[in-house]
Amino acid sequence: LPGLHVFAIALALEVTVGKTNTVMALNNSNVLLPCIFSTCIGFQDLVFKWYFNSTELIYHGKIKNKASEPTVIWHNPRVEFVGSTTKKDNNISIVLNSVEFSDAGKYTCEVKNPKEKNAQHNATIFLTVVHKMVETDNTVTLIIVGVVGGLIGLLILFMLIKRVVLFIIKKTQDGKKECLVSSSGNDNTENGLAGSKAEQKAPPKA
């Protein structure tokens, strides 16, 4: 059945830019544009490309097979390849050097696998370039100021309560490390880091 065949191909290879598809960069800094692909049927002579705003090619690479590293066919001089096939999990990420305001826009990571009759898969990431990183918080700050400092008071109160609670936990749960470990794991997750390692170390609860 032709329909089933197309469905199987659609599931064979997946391209992703991670948990979020937006990246913010400081003007004149270097920024990582992440992209990885996964395939359940393997690949041979896989071709991948990066496009800016759908039409401008900025990187073109090829990967012979799982055991070989990607090779460059063409790239924009400001684009640096930082991925790996053998060391990392099919990572085809790039770094855009000396970011300018004109670099803001849509970046598409496109992958074609001959084993899938050159079916094309892609993922998109949006780049925002700012003058100063503090500007990213300006909207929030203006909202807080606009609500006559009410939210600031709530925020400070929340932080104080959190400190007091953590202090009480530390004092009352002296010998029990589970609280501290899982709390640290949660904090890591909030900061965008995987907290799973910390959580795995927590001893099983009775």
UniProtKB/TrEMBL annotation:
Region spans: Disordered: 178-206
Transmembrane domains' residue ranges: 140-161
> Do the record's keywords include rRNA processing?
no
Query: Keyword Membrane: yes or no?
Result: yes
**What GO molecular function annotation could you give as one example from this UniProt entry?**
sodium channel regulator activity
Superkingdom of the source species: Eukaryota
Recorded hits in Gene3D superfamilies, A to Z, give: Immunoglobulins (2.60.40.10)
Membrane topology per the entry is:
Single-pass type I membrane protein
Record keywords: Disulfide bond, Glycoprotein, Immunoglobulin domain, Membrane, Signal, Transmembrane, Transmembrane helix
Q: What is its main location?
A: membrane
GO terms under cellular component: voltage-gated sodium channel complex
Q: Which GO terms describe its biological process?
A: cardiac muscle cell action potential involved in contraction; regulation of ventricular cardiac muscle cell membrane repolarization
- Biased composition range(s): Polar residues: 181-191
Domain Ig-like intervals: 2-126
Q: Where is the signal peptide?
A: 1-18
Any idea where this protein resides? Membrane
Q: Please state what the protein is called.
A: SCN4B protein
